[in-house]
Design a protein that fits this description.
This protein is an alpha+beta fold and about 290 residues long. Helices cover about 40% and strands about 15% of the residues. The structure holds zinc ion (ZN).
């Protein structure tokens, strides 16, 4: 068991990293670790995570009763308590608002497409927990649906949540989510997001055991919109392609080709009212 003094120092260090990387602003975010079977060490409410000191932390029980500390525990304590109740294997919980991942959470776009092998073997998919008012009991309710099968998730119009077997593993998953969101955003801006095939996703899942990765649930690779229970599996969008490991992104490719004027007569185009009026005027003029 890691000494309490080390865990306090580790929370300070992780808070500093989150703030320096822009994952939190002002007093956002919160961090907790298990101190024992029924005790948690948690960041206090209303402090900037970039400037904490080890003595600021609170100790609570698993019902949220404060046992020690001058300050009150995090306003998101209910969400942390719910995670520890649902996941006896989890030793640490990290919550932040990393801006690109949170942008996906605001856009309602889950990070669940089979894009990066490293993300598939570790986190699997990163779903979005339904919107809930922060710091109320709605948030633990929203998180409960996904936390049994996922070590990381987005929180709709709010931020991201990660868990781990120790504090640093929970924090690194937050880094992975933001990095993945960044890469996904760049690929989509470039106009193409090729996917890893379903067959390759299942092969990667087999490597979890080889690498000693302990995932809370298996991956469910799909391309036909089936909806298994996200409490039982990590749902990943991956088209079947027995002959190829990568599958060209048809949706984005088509939209780009349309813009380039590929001559597809069935393609949709968009015009402003002004552009449409000009086209009609020109057509009428040419008739005269
Ligand atoms: Zn938050």
């Amino acid at each position: 068991m890691t000494p309490e003094s080390t865990l306090r120092a580790d929370i300070v260090e992780v808070g500093r990293r989150m703030y320096n990387r822009g994952y939190t602003a002002s007093n956002d975010g919160n961090i907790s670790v298990r101190l024992g079977p029924d005790r948690l060490l948690m960041t206090p409410k209303s402090v900037c995570k970039g400037f904490m000191t080890p003595d600021m932390m609170c100790i609570t029980d698993l019902q949220g009763k404060k046992l020690q500390g001058d300050r009150d525990p995090s306003s998101e304590m209910l969400m942390h308590l719910e995670v520890y109740r649902q996941r006896p294997d989890v030793q640490s919980v990290v919550h932040a608002h990393p801006p690109i991942a949170t942008g996906f959470a605001v856009a309602g776009i889950p990070l669940d497409r089979a894009v990066l092998a490293e993300v598939l073997t570790t986190l699997g998919s990163i779903p979005i927990a339904e919107y809930a008012t922060p710091s109320t009991s709605e948030l633990p309710d929203a998180v409960r649906r996904y936390i049994k099968a996922h070590d990381g998730m987005l929180l709709a119009n709010h931020g991201a949540l990660t868990v781990g077997a120790d504090l640093y593993s929970a924090y690194y998953k937050m880094e992975t989510i933001e990095h993945f969101a960044h890469i996904s955003l760049v690929a989509r801006l470039l106009g193409r997001e090729n996917l890893i095939s379903r067959e390759e996703v299942l092969r990667l899942q087999g490597l979890r055991g080889t690498y000693g990765i302990k995932a809370p649930a298996p991956i469910w690779a799909t391309d036909d919109g089936d909806q298994p229970n996200p409490a039982d599996c990590q749902i990943v969008q991956a088209p079947s392609s027995p002959g190829a490991r990568l599958v060209a992104d048809v949706i984005h490719r088509n939209s780009r080709d349309e813009e380039a004027g590929s001559g597809n007569d069935e393609a949709e185009i968009r015009l402003t009212y002004r552009e449409l009026s000009q086209l009609i005027e020109e057509a009428v003029r040419s008739l005269r």
